[in-house]
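REVIEWER CHECKLIST
Item 1: Sequence provided? yes
Item 2: Single chain? yes
Item 3: Sequence as submitted:
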Amino acid sequence: MTNKIVFGVLIFSVFANTLFAQSNKSSEIYRTILAKDSLLFEVGFNQCDIGQFENLLSENLKFFHDKDGISNKEKFITDLKKGICNNVENRKVKRILIKDKTEIFPLYRNGLLYGAVQNGEHTFSEVRENQGGIAKFSNVWQLENEQWKLTESFSFDHQPLSNQQKNTSILANDSVIQSWLSENNIKTLGLGIIENGKLNQIKVFGEISKGNPAPYNTIFNVASLTKPITAMVTLKLISLGKWNLDEPLYKYYIDPDLANDSRNKLLTTRHILSHQTGFANWRSDNENKKLHFISEPGTKYGYSGEGFEYLRKALEKKFKKPFDKIAEELIFKPLKMKDTDFVWSGITDESRFAIGYNEIGEPYKTIKNTKANAADDLHTTIEDYGNFLVDILDGGNLSEKIYQEMLKKQSKIKENQYFGLGWVLYDLGNSEFAISHSGADNGTQCLVVLLPNTKQGVIIFTNSDNGNKIYEKILTNYLGDYGRKIIKIENK
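Item 4: Structure as written out by the authors:
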Protein backbone atom coordinates (compact mmCIF):
# COMPACT_ATOMS: atom_id res chain seq x y z
CA MET A 1 0.00 0.00 0.00
CA THR A 2 2.86 2.35 0.87
CA ASN A 3 4.41 1.80 -2.55
CA LYS A 4 1.08 2.72 -4.16
CA ILE A 5 0.95 6.01 -2.26
CA VAL A 6 4.51 6.84 -3.19
CA PHE A 7 3.77 6.01 -6.83
CA GLY A 8 0.72 8.27 -6.75
CA VAL A 9 2.65 11.15 -5.21
CA LEU A 10 5.36 10.74 -7.85
CA ILE A 11 2.74 10.89 -10.61
CA PHE A 12 1.39 14.10 -9.15
CA SER A 13 4.80 15.68 -8.72
CA VAL A 14 6.09 14.78 -12.14
CA PHE A 15 3.08 15.98 -14.04
CA ALA A 16 2.46 19.07 -11.97
CA ASN A 17 5.96 20.25 -12.82
CA THR A 18 6.03 19.24 -16.48
CA LEU A 19 3.81 21.88 -17.94
CA PHE A 20 4.80 21.18 -21.54
CA ALA A 21 2.93 17.87 -21.30
CA GLN A 22 -0.31 19.50 -20.13
CA SER A 23 -3.21 19.30 -22.56
CA ASN A 24 -4.62 22.51 -23.95
CA LYS A 25 -8.02 23.33 -22.47
CA SER A 26 -9.60 23.26 -25.91
CA SER A 27 -8.16 19.82 -26.70
CA GLU A 28 -10.32 16.74 -27.05
CA ILE A 29 -8.61 14.90 -24.15
CA TYR A 30 -9.16 17.87 -21.82
CA ARG A 31 -12.83 18.10 -22.76
CA THR A 32 -13.26 14.33 -22.48
CA ILE A 33 -11.82 14.08 -18.97
CA LEU A 34 -13.76 17.14 -17.80
CA ALA A 35 -16.95 15.51 -19.14
CA LYS A 36 -16.17 12.32 -17.19
CA ASP A 37 -15.43 14.40 -14.09
CA SER A 38 -18.81 16.11 -14.48
CA LEU A 39 -20.61 12.77 -14.77
CA LEU A 40 -18.76 11.35 -11.79
CA PHE A 41 -19.19 14.27 -9.43
CA GLU A 42 -21.81 16.67 -10.78
CA VAL A 43 -24.25 13.84 -11.42
CA GLY A 44 -22.89 10.99 -9.32
CA PHE A 45 -21.70 12.73 -6.15
CA ASN A 46 -23.93 15.82 -6.09
CA GLN A 47 -27.11 13.99 -7.11
CA CYS A 48 -26.22 10.66 -5.46
CA ASP A 49 -26.59 8.83 -8.75
CA ILE A 50 -24.66 5.72 -7.71
CA GLY A 51 -24.95 4.31 -11.23
CA GLN A 52 -22.45 6.91 -12.45
CA PHE A 53 -19.84 5.59 -10.02
CA GLU A 54 -20.55 2.00 -10.99
CA ASN A 55 -20.09 2.89 -14.68
CA LEU A 56 -17.02 5.10 -14.37
CA LEU A 57 -15.01 3.44 -11.60
CA SER A 58 -12.62 0.69 -12.62
CA GLU A 59 -13.07 -2.67 -10.90
CA ASN A 60 -9.42 -2.18 -9.87
CA LEU A 61 -10.01 1.26 -8.32
CA LYS A 62 -7.72 2.41 -5.51
CA PHE A 63 -8.89 5.55 -3.69
CA PHE A 64 -6.51 7.27 -1.26
CA HIS A 65 -7.94 9.87 1.13
CA ASP A 66 -5.81 11.82 3.60
CA LYS A 67 -8.51 11.62 6.29
CA ASP A 68 -10.35 8.37 5.62
CA GLY A 69 -7.67 5.97 4.41
CA ILE A 70 -7.72 3.63 1.41
CA SER A 71 -10.76 2.23 -0.41
CA ASN A 72 -11.40 -0.13 -3.30
CA LYS A 73 -14.45 0.22 -5.58
CA GLU A 74 -16.73 -1.86 -3.38
CA LYS A 75 -15.84 0.01 -0.18
CA PHE A 76 -16.03 3.39 -1.92
CA ILE A 77 -19.58 2.79 -3.16
CA THR A 78 -20.68 1.20 0.12
CA ASP A 79 -19.40 4.21 2.07
CA LEU A 80 -21.32 6.55 -0.25
CA LYS A 81 -24.56 4.62 0.20
CA LYS A 82 -24.22 4.47 3.97
CA GLY A 83 -22.89 8.00 4.35
CA ILE A 84 -23.79 11.16 2.41
CA CYS A 85 -26.19 9.31 0.10
CA ASN A 86 -28.03 7.53 2.88
CA ASN A 87 -30.65 10.26 3.01
CA VAL A 88 -30.64 12.17 -0.28
CA GLU A 89 -33.31 14.64 0.83
CA ASN A 90 -31.27 15.83 3.80
CA ARG A 91 -27.74 15.59 2.41
CA LYS A 92 -25.66 18.73 2.72
CA VAL A 93 -22.42 18.28 0.83
CA LYS A 94 -21.96 19.50 -2.74
CA ARG A 95 -18.71 19.17 -4.68
CA ILE A 96 -17.67 22.00 -7.05
CA LEU A 97 -14.70 21.64 -9.39
CA ILE A 98 -12.43 24.70 -9.64
CA LYS A 99 -11.84 24.50 -13.39
CA ASP A 100 -9.07 27.07 -13.65
CA LYS A 101 -7.06 24.87 -11.24
CA THR A 102 -7.53 21.77 -13.35
CA GLU A 103 -4.70 20.23 -15.40
CA ILE A 104 -4.95 17.24 -17.73
CA PHE A 105 -1.89 15.23 -18.80
CA PRO A 106 -2.27 12.51 -21.43
CA LEU A 107 -0.54 9.14 -21.02
CA TYR A 108 0.82 7.29 -24.07
CA ARG A 109 2.17 3.80 -24.72
CA ASN A 110 4.02 3.32 -28.01
CA GLY A 111 2.42 6.48 -29.30
CA LEU A 112 -1.12 5.37 -28.42
CA LEU A 113 -3.22 7.14 -25.81
CA TYR A 114 -4.06 4.82 -22.92
CA GLY A 115 -4.85 7.17 -20.05
CA ALA A 116 -4.68 10.61 -18.48
CA VAL A 117 -3.75 12.22 -15.19
CA GLN A 118 -6.11 14.88 -13.86
CA ASN A 119 -4.80 17.24 -11.20
CA GLY A 120 -6.85 19.94 -9.58
CA GLU A 121 -8.76 21.39 -6.66
CA HIS A 122 -12.37 21.15 -5.62
CA THR A 123 -14.51 22.69 -2.94
CA PHE A 124 -17.14 21.01 -0.80
CA SER A 125 -19.97 23.23 0.33
CA GLU A 126 -22.18 22.34 3.27
CA VAL A 127 -25.23 24.41 2.47
CA ARG A 128 -27.15 24.21 5.72
CA GLU A 129 -24.23 25.12 7.92
CA ASN A 130 -22.80 27.62 5.45
CA GLN A 131 -19.46 25.89 5.80
CA GLY A 132 -17.28 23.95 3.49
CA GLY A 133 -13.83 22.84 2.60
CA ILE A 134 -11.30 22.72 -0.19
CA ALA A 135 -8.96 19.91 -1.23
CA LYS A 136 -6.48 18.93 -3.92
CA PHE A 137 -6.83 15.77 -5.93
CA SER A 138 -5.04 13.69 -8.53
CA ASN A 139 -6.99 11.19 -10.64
CA VAL A 140 -5.61 8.54 -12.98
CA TRP A 141 -8.01 7.70 -15.84
CA GLN A 142 -7.39 4.74 -18.14
CA LEU A 143 -9.01 3.34 -21.25
CA GLU A 144 -10.43 -0.09 -20.48
CA ASN A 145 -12.02 -1.75 -23.51
CA GLU A 146 -12.17 1.73 -25.11
CA GLN A 147 -14.11 3.12 -22.11
CA TRP A 148 -12.67 5.74 -19.74
CA LYS A 149 -12.43 4.43 -16.18
CA LEU A 150 -11.09 6.00 -12.98
CA THR A 151 -8.38 3.62 -11.77
CA GLU A 152 -6.63 5.60 -9.02
CA SER A 153 -7.65 8.68 -7.10
CA PHE A 154 -5.81 10.71 -4.48
CA SER A 155 -7.68 13.27 -2.36
CA PHE A 156 -5.49 15.32 -0.04
CA ASP A 157 -4.68 18.63 1.63
CA HIS A 158 -8.23 19.11 2.95
CA GLN A 159 -8.64 22.60 4.43
CA PRO A 160 -11.51 24.81 5.65
CA LEU A 161 -12.93 27.01 2.93
CA SER A 162 -11.91 30.65 3.35
CA ASN A 163 -14.35 33.50 2.71
CA GLN A 164 -12.53 34.39 -0.49
CA GLN A 165 -12.77 30.82 -1.73
CA LYS A 166 -16.46 30.72 -0.86
CA ASN A 167 -17.09 33.74 -3.05
CA THR A 168 -15.46 32.02 -6.05
CA SER A 169 -17.72 29.00 -5.69
CA ILE A 170 -20.65 30.90 -7.10
CA LEU A 171 -22.79 27.88 -7.84
CA ALA A 172 -22.44 26.33 -4.43
CA ASN A 173 -25.74 27.41 -2.91
CA ASP A 174 -28.01 25.01 -4.74
CA SER A 175 -30.84 25.39 -2.24
CA VAL A 176 -31.27 29.08 -3.05
CA ILE A 177 -31.39 28.44 -6.79
CA GLN A 178 -33.81 25.56 -6.30
CA SER A 179 -36.06 27.91 -4.34
CA TRP A 180 -36.07 30.35 -7.27
CA LEU A 181 -37.24 27.55 -9.54
CA SER A 182 -39.97 26.45 -7.14
CA GLU A 183 -41.22 29.99 -6.58
CA ASN A 184 -41.58 30.55 -10.33
CA ASN A 185 -42.74 27.10 -11.40
CA ILE A 186 -39.66 26.48 -13.56
CA LYS A 187 -38.99 22.81 -14.26
CA THR A 188 -35.39 22.96 -15.48
CA LEU A 189 -32.57 25.52 -15.37
CA GLY A 190 -29.23 25.24 -17.13
CA LEU A 191 -26.61 27.65 -15.80
CA GLY A 192 -23.10 28.26 -17.11
CA ILE A 193 -20.45 30.62 -15.77
CA ILE A 194 -17.54 31.94 -17.84
CA GLU A 195 -14.56 33.31 -15.93
CA ASN A 196 -11.23 34.45 -17.36
CA GLY A 197 -12.41 33.50 -20.82
CA LYS A 198 -13.09 29.87 -19.88
CA LEU A 199 -16.30 27.95 -19.29
CA ASN A 200 -15.66 27.50 -15.60
CA GLN A 201 -18.85 26.00 -14.22
CA ILE A 202 -21.90 24.17 -15.54
CA LYS A 203 -24.93 23.37 -13.43
CA VAL A 204 -28.32 21.99 -14.41
CA PHE A 205 -31.16 22.15 -11.87
CA GLY A 206 -34.56 20.50 -11.74
CA GLU A 207 -35.96 17.46 -13.51
CA ILE A 208 -35.88 16.29 -17.12
CA SER A 209 -39.04 14.32 -16.34
CA LYS A 210 -40.95 13.56 -13.16
CA GLY A 211 -38.61 11.86 -10.71
CA ASN A 212 -35.57 12.09 -13.04
CA PRO A 213 -32.95 14.79 -12.33
CA ALA A 214 -31.91 16.79 -15.38
CA PRO A 215 -28.41 15.71 -16.51
CA TYR A 216 -25.53 18.16 -16.87
CA ASN A 217 -25.84 17.78 -20.67
CA THR A 218 -29.56 18.49 -20.86
CA ILE A 219 -30.59 19.64 -24.34
CA PHE A 220 -32.61 22.88 -24.51
CA ASN A 221 -34.48 24.64 -27.29
CA VAL A 222 -32.86 28.09 -27.13
CA ALA A 223 -35.21 29.94 -29.52
CA SER A 224 -33.59 33.19 -30.74
CA LEU A 225 -30.18 32.24 -29.37
CA THR A 226 -30.09 30.65 -32.80
CA LYS A 227 -29.42 34.09 -34.28
CA PRO A 228 -25.89 34.58 -32.83
CA ILE A 229 -24.94 31.23 -34.35
CA THR A 230 -26.26 32.36 -37.74
CA ALA A 231 -24.47 35.67 -37.35
CA MET A 232 -21.15 33.97 -36.58
CA VAL A 233 -21.49 31.57 -39.50
CA THR A 234 -21.95 34.58 -41.77
CA LEU A 235 -19.15 36.63 -40.22
CA LYS A 236 -16.77 33.69 -40.57
CA LEU A 237 -17.64 33.47 -44.28
CA ILE A 238 -17.00 37.21 -44.58
CA SER A 239 -13.64 36.87 -42.80
CA LEU A 240 -12.73 34.07 -45.23
CA GLY A 241 -13.52 36.32 -48.19
CA LYS A 242 -16.42 34.12 -49.31
CA TRP A 243 -19.21 36.58 -48.51
CA ASN A 244 -19.60 40.35 -48.44
CA LEU A 245 -21.14 42.28 -45.57
CA ASP A 246 -22.47 45.07 -47.78
CA GLU A 247 -23.23 43.26 -51.03
CA PRO A 248 -26.94 43.41 -51.96
CA LEU A 249 -28.58 40.03 -51.41
CA TYR A 250 -30.74 40.18 -54.53
CA LYS A 251 -27.74 38.83 -56.44
CA TYR A 252 -28.37 35.50 -54.73
CA TYR A 253 -31.98 35.51 -53.59
CA ILE A 254 -35.19 37.54 -53.93
CA ASP A 255 -38.23 36.55 -51.91
CA PRO A 256 -41.22 36.07 -54.22
CA ASP A 257 -43.26 38.51 -52.09
CA LEU A 258 -40.69 41.25 -52.88
CA ALA A 259 -40.14 40.52 -56.54
CA ASN A 260 -41.89 43.72 -57.62
CA ASP A 261 -40.44 45.95 -54.90
CA SER A 262 -37.23 47.66 -55.99
CA ARG A 263 -36.18 48.07 -52.36
CA ASN A 264 -35.10 44.41 -52.39
CA LYS A 265 -31.96 45.61 -54.21
CA LEU A 266 -30.96 47.66 -51.14
CA LEU A 267 -31.02 44.80 -48.62
CA THR A 268 -27.60 43.65 -47.33
CA THR A 269 -26.20 41.28 -44.73
CA ARG A 270 -25.29 44.23 -42.51
CA HIS A 271 -28.96 45.30 -42.45
CA ILE A 272 -30.05 41.81 -41.43
CA LEU A 273 -27.48 41.23 -38.68
CA SER A 274 -28.16 44.68 -37.18
CA HIS A 275 -31.96 44.36 -37.57
CA GLN A 276 -32.41 47.18 -40.04
CA THR A 277 -34.18 45.18 -42.76
CA GLY A 278 -37.43 47.12 -42.67
CA PHE A 279 -39.31 43.81 -42.16
CA ALA A 280 -41.74 42.82 -39.44
CA ASN A 281 -40.47 40.15 -37.07
CA TRP A 282 -42.33 37.52 -39.13
CA ARG A 283 -44.39 37.86 -42.30
CA SER A 284 -47.23 36.17 -40.40
CA ASP A 285 -47.40 39.37 -38.30
CA ASN A 286 -48.56 41.27 -41.41
CA GLU A 287 -52.26 41.45 -42.13
CA ASN A 288 -51.92 39.74 -45.52
CA LYS A 289 -49.31 37.25 -44.18
CA LYS A 290 -46.90 38.30 -46.91
CA LEU A 291 -43.42 39.76 -46.59
CA HIS A 292 -43.11 43.46 -47.31
CA PHE A 293 -40.99 46.44 -46.31
CA ILE A 294 -42.35 48.53 -43.46
CA SER A 295 -39.43 50.91 -43.94
CA GLU A 296 -36.51 51.19 -46.31
CA PRO A 297 -33.57 48.89 -45.46
CA GLY A 298 -30.89 50.59 -43.37
CA THR A 299 -33.04 53.45 -42.08
CA LYS A 300 -34.28 52.24 -38.68
CA TYR A 301 -34.08 49.45 -36.11
CA GLY A 302 -36.73 46.74 -36.19
CA TYR A 303 -36.15 43.26 -34.80
CA SER A 304 -36.77 40.65 -37.47
CA GLY A 305 -36.43 36.88 -37.49
CA GLU A 306 -37.67 37.02 -41.05
CA GLY A 307 -34.47 38.84 -42.01
CA PHE A 308 -32.32 35.96 -40.73
CA GLU A 309 -34.38 33.50 -42.74
CA TYR A 310 -33.85 35.71 -45.81
CA LEU A 311 -30.11 35.54 -45.18
CA ARG A 312 -30.24 31.75 -44.81
CA LYS A 313 -31.90 31.37 -48.20
CA ALA A 314 -29.34 33.65 -49.83
CA LEU A 315 -26.44 31.68 -48.30
CA GLU A 316 -27.94 28.37 -49.38
CA LYS A 317 -28.32 29.67 -52.94
CA LYS A 318 -24.73 30.88 -53.00
CA PHE A 319 -23.08 27.80 -51.44
CA LYS A 320 -25.56 25.19 -52.75
CA LYS A 321 -25.90 23.34 -49.45
CA PRO A 322 -28.30 23.42 -46.46
CA PHE A 323 -27.52 26.07 -43.88
CA ASP A 324 -27.20 23.54 -41.05
CA LYS A 325 -24.38 21.84 -42.99
CA ILE A 326 -22.57 25.17 -43.40
CA ALA A 327 -22.91 25.80 -39.65
CA GLU A 328 -21.64 22.32 -38.90
CA GLU A 329 -18.51 22.87 -40.98
CA LEU A 330 -17.70 26.35 -39.67
CA ILE A 331 -18.79 26.17 -36.02
CA PHE A 332 -20.18 22.91 -34.67
CA LYS A 333 -17.36 20.58 -35.73
CA PRO A 334 -14.43 22.94 -34.95
CA LEU A 335 -15.85 23.70 -31.50
CA LYS A 336 -16.93 20.06 -30.93
CA MET A 337 -20.55 21.10 -30.34
CA LYS A 338 -21.77 17.53 -30.67
CA ASP A 339 -25.18 18.15 -29.07
CA THR A 340 -26.09 21.22 -31.15
CA ASP A 341 -28.22 21.26 -34.28
CA PHE A 342 -30.87 23.23 -36.15
CA VAL A 343 -32.84 20.09 -36.96
CA TRP A 344 -33.99 16.90 -35.28
CA SER A 345 -32.32 13.79 -36.58
CA GLY A 346 -31.84 10.14 -35.74
CA ILE A 347 -28.93 11.01 -33.43
CA THR A 348 -30.85 13.56 -31.33
CA ASP A 349 -31.02 12.17 -27.78
CA GLU A 350 -34.63 12.90 -26.86
CA SER A 351 -34.14 11.45 -23.38
CA ARG A 352 -32.02 14.52 -22.56
CA PHE A 353 -34.33 17.10 -24.13
CA ALA A 354 -36.03 19.56 -21.77
CA ILE A 355 -39.61 19.78 -23.05
CA GLY A 356 -41.19 23.20 -22.63
CA TYR A 357 -43.85 24.23 -20.11
CA ASN A 358 -46.29 27.12 -19.89
CA GLU A 359 -46.74 29.47 -16.92
CA ILE A 360 -48.85 26.98 -14.95
CA GLY A 361 -46.58 24.02 -15.62
CA GLU A 362 -48.43 22.39 -18.51
CA PRO A 363 -46.21 20.88 -21.22
CA TYR A 364 -46.12 22.13 -24.79
CA LYS A 365 -45.94 19.75 -27.71
CA THR A 366 -42.34 19.50 -28.90
CA ILE A 367 -41.89 20.72 -32.47
CA LYS A 368 -39.20 18.72 -34.26
CA ASN A 369 -37.80 20.77 -37.12
CA THR A 370 -36.51 18.85 -40.12
CA LYS A 371 -35.30 22.01 -41.87
CA ALA A 372 -33.02 24.67 -40.43
CA ASN A 373 -34.49 27.98 -39.28
CA ALA A 374 -31.73 30.60 -39.06
CA ALA A 375 -33.60 32.62 -36.44
CA ASP A 376 -35.18 30.09 -34.11
CA ASP A 377 -35.36 26.61 -32.56
CA LEU A 378 -31.68 25.65 -32.24
CA HIS A 379 -31.25 22.88 -29.69
CA THR A 380 -28.05 22.74 -27.66
CA THR A 381 -26.50 22.26 -24.21
CA ILE A 382 -24.90 24.63 -21.72
CA GLU A 383 -21.49 23.13 -22.50
CA ASP A 384 -21.84 23.41 -26.27
CA TYR A 385 -23.18 26.95 -26.27
CA GLY A 386 -20.68 27.92 -23.57
CA ASN A 387 -17.82 26.78 -25.81
CA PHE A 388 -19.30 28.87 -28.61
CA LEU A 389 -19.35 31.93 -26.32
CA VAL A 390 -15.79 31.31 -25.16
CA ASP A 391 -14.78 31.28 -28.82
CA ILE A 392 -16.52 34.64 -29.26
CA LEU A 393 -14.53 36.10 -26.36
CA ASP A 394 -11.38 34.76 -28.00
CA GLY A 395 -12.12 36.54 -31.26
CA GLY A 396 -14.24 33.89 -32.96
CA ASN A 397 -11.44 33.22 -35.46
CA LEU A 398 -12.58 36.38 -37.26
CA SER A 399 -10.40 39.02 -38.82
CA GLU A 400 -9.84 41.97 -36.51
CA LYS A 401 -11.81 44.22 -38.86
CA ILE A 402 -14.88 41.97 -38.88
CA TYR A 403 -14.67 41.34 -35.13
CA GLN A 404 -14.74 45.08 -34.49
CA GLU A 405 -17.67 45.46 -36.90
CA MET A 406 -19.52 42.85 -34.83
CA LEU A 407 -18.98 44.94 -31.67
CA LYS A 408 -19.74 48.26 -33.34
CA LYS A 409 -23.01 50.09 -32.54
CA GLN A 410 -24.82 49.49 -35.84
CA SER A 411 -28.37 50.46 -34.82
CA LYS A 412 -29.86 52.04 -31.70
CA ILE A 413 -32.58 50.25 -29.75
CA LYS A 414 -32.83 52.74 -26.89
CA GLU A 415 -30.56 54.68 -24.54
CA ASN A 416 -27.37 52.69 -23.86
CA GLN A 417 -28.66 49.70 -25.83
CA TYR A 418 -27.72 48.96 -29.44
CA PHE A 419 -27.44 46.18 -31.97
CA GLY A 420 -24.07 45.22 -33.35
CA LEU A 421 -23.85 42.39 -35.86
CA GLY A 422 -25.89 39.58 -34.35
CA TRP A 423 -25.56 40.84 -30.76
CA VAL A 424 -27.25 43.32 -28.44
CA LEU A 425 -24.70 45.79 -27.04
CA TYR A 426 -25.04 47.44 -23.62
CA ASP A 427 -23.06 50.59 -22.89
CA LEU A 428 -22.19 50.23 -19.18
CA GLY A 429 -20.13 53.43 -18.92
CA ASN A 430 -16.40 53.97 -18.31
CA SER A 431 -15.58 52.08 -21.54
CA GLU A 432 -17.24 48.93 -20.20
CA PHE A 433 -19.81 47.12 -22.29
CA ALA A 434 -21.68 43.85 -22.51
CA ILE A 435 -22.87 41.80 -25.47
CA SER A 436 -25.97 39.74 -25.07
CA HIS A 437 -28.84 37.91 -26.69
CA SER A 438 -32.01 36.32 -25.44
CA GLY A 439 -34.31 33.61 -26.69
CA ALA A 440 -38.04 33.38 -26.03
CA ASP A 441 -40.69 31.03 -27.37
CA ASN A 442 -43.39 28.74 -26.05
CA GLY A 443 -41.70 26.79 -23.27
CA THR A 444 -38.31 28.45 -23.41
CA GLN A 445 -36.70 31.56 -21.95
CA CYS A 446 -32.94 31.84 -22.41
CA LEU A 447 -30.31 34.55 -22.00
CA VAL A 448 -26.56 34.90 -22.46
CA VAL A 449 -24.43 37.86 -21.38
CA LEU A 450 -20.72 38.38 -22.10
CA LEU A 451 -18.33 41.02 -20.75
CA PRO A 452 -15.53 41.10 -23.36
CA ASN A 453 -13.19 43.32 -21.30
CA THR A 454 -13.25 41.12 -18.20
CA LYS A 455 -13.79 37.83 -20.09
CA GLN A 456 -16.84 36.96 -17.96
CA GLY A 457 -20.14 35.52 -18.99
CA VAL A 458 -23.40 33.99 -17.84
CA ILE A 459 -25.55 31.43 -19.67
CA ILE A 460 -29.16 30.90 -18.58
CA PHE A 461 -31.36 28.25 -20.23
CA THR A 462 -34.85 27.43 -18.98
CA ASN A 463 -37.73 25.35 -20.32
CA SER A 464 -40.50 27.56 -19.00
CA ASP A 465 -42.49 30.61 -20.01
CA ASN A 466 -41.56 31.88 -16.53
CA GLY A 467 -37.82 31.56 -17.07
CA ASN A 468 -37.22 35.30 -17.49
CA LYS A 469 -38.45 35.88 -13.93
CA ILE A 470 -35.10 34.72 -12.52
CA TYR A 471 -32.84 36.66 -14.92
CA GLU A 472 -32.42 39.60 -12.57
CA LYS A 473 -31.48 37.42 -9.59
CA ILE A 474 -28.89 35.50 -11.58
CA LEU A 475 -27.33 38.51 -13.30
CA THR A 476 -27.05 40.56 -10.11
CA ASN A 477 -25.70 37.62 -8.13
CA TYR A 478 -23.08 36.62 -10.68
CA LEU A 479 -22.20 39.86 -12.47
CA GLY A 480 -22.69 42.29 -9.59
CA ASP A 481 -22.79 45.97 -10.62
CA TYR A 482 -22.54 45.08 -14.30
CA GLY A 483 -25.60 42.88 -13.94
CA ARG A 484 -27.50 45.66 -12.17
CA LYS A 485 -26.60 48.14 -14.93
CA ILE A 486 -27.89 45.75 -17.60
CA ILE A 487 -31.17 45.31 -15.71
CA LYS A 488 -31.48 49.08 -15.31
CA ILE A 489 -31.02 49.64 -19.06
CA GLU A 490 -33.58 46.93 -19.83
CA ASN A 491 -36.14 48.47 -17.48
CA LYS A 492 -35.89 52.01 -18.90
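Item 5: Key structural point noted by reviewer: The chain has two domains: 2-167, 220-491.
Item 6: Recommendation: ____
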